[in-house]
């Protein structure tokens, strides 16, 4: 059966964050449910739908921004008490809006994640987890990396309290009391957790997770070890997952999986064919989906999926048909309903236009008076700067609560701007003087009307570090702009990984000196992405990384007074040596630096680079031939006389040009990496070989792997 859903926009509240919208339990079977949502203005809005109109049940006064909203109540009873987390406080409201709880926690930071199960309250700040029972402190845990979400397995099914933390370092941490029971390694940083089927499945131990790089998976959390059930990659290169719910929208008795992503994609997965879910339906909204719920909202008897978006829109995808089939009485009733709705919308629009004119006049008068004070309008920007493993590029996503006019991007380090298919903005580049002010990039993105979300892609060069700045100007009066800064780190293309191949030939850099654990940790944070800013607990720590561009690896182990860094790429060791010694010099710390260079690692790195180099050189040659071959085709009218390899170039011309356009300067980057490798190899021997670089470039043009390795060994 084909799933047919119609979109309905109900209401707009303030800017909302992840997991801040829920549906209250229905009073009867197939009856409509009330919606409760909390926004960043601190307002909780509860409303129902009557005759297609949103009718408010209650609305609280503004306050501190609401970071989470959950439903609770005694176990095995309808969960209809509303709990919100604001700052470090948890408040409880009845379904009528009466406040019955105000619990000030002992957390020094704001609450980032919350879960409620009966009398048990699970709260997380950035790194700290706390468990309360009847508002009394029970357990505490300090996580090694930022906590994004928290969940507890259903107590009535598993007969014990088993909290699960979703942490930024690609790990689920399963706790028992205040202790870590075990860790579950995931393919990406988990952003959201949900109980499978809403109840943990038959065993109560099944958890669905979504990651920031768009992967989805199911894991069974047993008392002793995790059992992975299934995992879905992100082949379509869609956004990160922000919310998950289970609901039977098809009506076949099996709950579907509802998924909301940060690029506005709403997806429905079903389980009809096998144990692994398959994508059944998707719908694109124009902004990120903060919360998703399945239920009955608009009309009795018609199920729907309700989503709340970043700017506060509550949008439903309903099973209620837009055009009803039936007699003329039904049609007349429908047309009368529609006419009254259109007329009320017209009245509302006229009222809003009048209000805007009045406010504009008031503003003009106040701005011209002698006591005028300039006021900058405040607006919210939701930004995300993440490294993509697939193409070794950074995604910068900017989302504004109102339409974006333009975004100016400036960088003090050389970076490439890459093409993004979803991006409809017009980009223009300004010439910049890189010498006096270190200004390497100045680009302006002019957005089309009603664009609230902009995605950019950049690729950095390892070893060159600095700041990328985005100046965001929305379409509001008076004109105002927000500046957001993003650090491009020295080893910016490295990504955290769970393990590395210890059999590779490794180069070692060892540092010794009078530095504390916190100081060397701050240097590692400065050099590498995805390292938690908080100094790890314990006396020493080991992190593993992989270079997303080349596939080389890095192991960093350090403690107070000593640091050891191992990599199969000499250039990585060279960059670390330069940056770490510079940072130590800034703090007037004397470092004793020693290194052990493995000659075999150079050959190994060249063998990793060479297939990429060969592919890019072949692609460049094919692209350069396209124009000449197309001219031949026009003149001759027939290309049968051409060799098959040239005919295939003509057939694939559009794909080849698209790929070449998507990866500008890719070949130059590879040439640069091989040149750096050559210079770094001899730098550790105390030899300057910069005069031999032109000869190296000639060999690279020949694309001969054996000749290249021989040149490196003979130089």
From TrEMBL:
Keyword Coiled coil attached? yes
| Matching Pfam families | BBS7_GAE, BBS7_hp, BBS7_pf, Beta-prop_BBS7
BBS7 GAE domain location, by residue? 377-486
Q: Which residues form the BBS7 platform domain?
A: 494-596
Family annotation (InterPro entries) = Bardet-Biedl_syndrome_7_prot (IPR016575), BBS7_GAE_dom (IPR056334), BBS7_hairpin (IPR056335), BBS7_pf_dom (IPR056333), Beta-prop_BBS7 (IPR056332), WD40_repeat_dom_sf (IPR036322)
Gene that specifies this protein: Bbs7
Protein name, per record: BBS7 protein
Q: Which domain of life is it from?
A: Eukaryota
Single Gene Ontology BP annotation: non-motile cilium assembly
In which organism is this protein found?
A: Rynchops niger (Black skimmer)
Record GO cellular component, one term: ciliary basal body
Which stretches make up the BBS7 helical hairpin domain? 599-712
Keywords tagged on the record = Coiled coil
Q: Which residues form the BBS7 beta-propeller domain?
A: 21-319
Q: Tell me which stretches of the chain form a coiled coil.
A: 335-362
